[in-house]
Amino acid sequence: MKNKFRRILNKNQAGFTLLETIVGLAISTLILSGTLITMHQLFFSGNNVRENMTSTQYVQNTGSWLRADVLMSQSIITGDNPSTGENETMTLYWAGASWKDAQDNDRIDYYEVSYYVDSEELRRKENVTTTVHNSNGQLIDTIVGETVALISDNITGVNVISDNITLVVSISALVDDAAVEKTYEIFPRAVK
Question: Which secondary-structure segment (H or E) carries 63?
Answer without folding.
Answer: helix 18-72
